[in-house]
Amino acid sequence: MTLRILVVGAGVSGLAAARGLRIAGFRPDVVEELPATMVPGAGIFLPGNAGRALRMLGLDAPLRPLGDLIFRQMFQDSHGQPLFELDAAALWAGVGESRALSRADLQQVLLTGVGGEVRYDTAVRDLHLLDGAVKVEFGDGSVAEYDLVVGADGRRSMIRERTGLGGAATPTGQIVYRSVVSGGPALSDWTALLGRRSQIVAMPMGGRKLYCYADETVADGTPNPADPRARLRELFADFGGCVPAILGALEKVQVARTDEVVLERYSRGSVLLVGDAAHATAPTLAQGAAMALEDAVVLGEVLKRADGDVRVALDAYEDRRRQRCDLVRERTHERDGTRDVAPALRDPMLRRRGQRIFTDHYRALVEPF
Ligand SMILES: Cc1cc2nc3c(=O)[nH]c(=O)nc-3n(C[C@H](O)[C@H](O)[C@H](O)COP(=O)(O)OP(=O)(O)OC[C@H]3O[C@@H](n4cnc5c(N)ncnc54)[C@H](O)[C@@H]3O)c2cc1C
Fold it and tell me: What is the CA(342)–ligand 1 centre distance, in A?
């Protein structure tokens, strides 16, 4: 069974999809428009279902020495007083380990799993659906035909627009900040301090470093701050707990916006969208990479099971991924809905019921997919 498969994009979802296809016996081409020298900064938190998917992709061994394991998620008010905690070790027991690590390390693990060359500096410029195939035009003017194109080209996916699967992503109204902090406070747990319309999260990510993530909800039209580090210091100036020590140790801060992608179908003809291109959400549940990794496992399985019949495989893919990815988006909305509630109302409720509510948000994801 020889299928000509192209994976567009070499982020988490593209590299994972290539791995999933490889272990199912296919040999996809992988292209990435950026140069190979572009290494992602900051860190990433991978809850237990991401750990399980990486194991199913046969990548748990190279992952094991990297980053720090996360056993508990501590939720605190803006003063650093406990609200509740999630026992991540218990929640994901028998599923997979929760881990925080550098994005560059995760990328390297995924890259070694591809098992073939990634063609960097190679953009897909356009594509045309044919009967049972896809004609692809690359940035250098070359053209090739494929039996399956996997669009792993991120939340601003051009594959999504060109195939008519969806339009532009919808902004979530959040500005997000990421930083790797050395010389900050000694934290052994994932720790979030919740403010009103803003939160800051810090976690150990190996090498005595902390991965810090923060966000704020803003009005339409608000530009990104010119000096993100100064903005974080301003935004969290009144916070207690570990925050003053983190703000004091902050160096480089990345700033970005987040978008949401909602599609009626993930595929059209012989084109499939995976990862953020198909179902981006705000990163509130830290499920973006996990969903992309699960997509990759399922893609390999359905194609193998359908014995290379792309149409049958893509229908089966839709059945297996739809409910789960929708669930992540719905839970993300529920969580983000509490951002606007005054802490004086929200915090007593979270002290009483936070553990149960937040555990329930993840429980369905514990189940096999
Ligand atoms: C601030 C922030 C924090 C987050 N934290 C977490 C977290 O802790 N845990 C978690 O699981 N998730 C987190 N996420 C979400 C997670 O980062 C994403 O879900 C995940 O990285 C998506 O990967 P992707 O490969 O689908 O997309 P991308 O990473 O966007 O990759 C797409 C790739 O396609 C390439 N490309 C685009 N167009 C073309 C083209 N035409 N031709 C060739 N190549 C192309 C791009 O250059 C890019 O390399 C976070 C997101 C944000 C914004």
Answer: 32
The verdict on residue 196 lying in a domain is: no
Q: Which atom of ligand 1 is nearest to the CA of 43?
A: 8
Question: Ligand 1 pocket, 303 CB below 6 A?
Answer: no
Q: Is residue 225 part of a domain?
A: no
Q: 6-32: per-residue pLDDT in tens?
A: 999 999 999 999 999 999 999 999 999
CA distance 358 to 49: 15
| Distance from residue 260's CA to the centre of ligand 1 (Å) | 12
- 121 Cα–ligand 1 center, Å: 17
Q: Is the pLDDT of residue 277 over 70?
A: yes
Q: How many domains does the chain have?
A: 1
pLDDT exceeds 90 at position 258: yes
H/E element holding 102? strand 99-102
The DSSP secondary structure of 216-238, one letter per residue, reads EE--TTPPPPSSHHHHHHHHTTT
Q: What is the arithmetic mean of pLDDT over 223-245?
A: 97
Residue 226 burial by Cβ neighbours in a 10 Å radius (0-12, 13-18, 19+) = exposed
Query: According to the model, what pLDDT value does residue 287 have?
Result: 98
Is 290 near ligand 1, meaning CB less than 6 Å away? yes
pLDDT for residue 1 is more than 70: no
Q: Is this structure's pTM higher than 0.90? A: yes
Query: Tell me, what CATH number does 21's domain have?
Result: 3.50.50.60
115 pLDDT above the threshold of 90: no
Could you tell me how far CA 61 lies from the centroid of its own chain? Answer: 21
C-beta 123 within 6 A of ligand 1: yes
Q: Is 276 in the pocket of ligand 1 (CB under 6 A)?
A: yes
Q: Does residue 33 lie within any of the structural domains? A: yes
41, 148 in Cβ contact below 8 A?
no
Is pLDDT above 90 for 338? Answer: no
Q: Does ligand 1 come within 6 angstroms of the Cβ of 176?
A: yes
Q: Is 158 near ligand 1, meaning CB less than 6 Å away?
A: yes
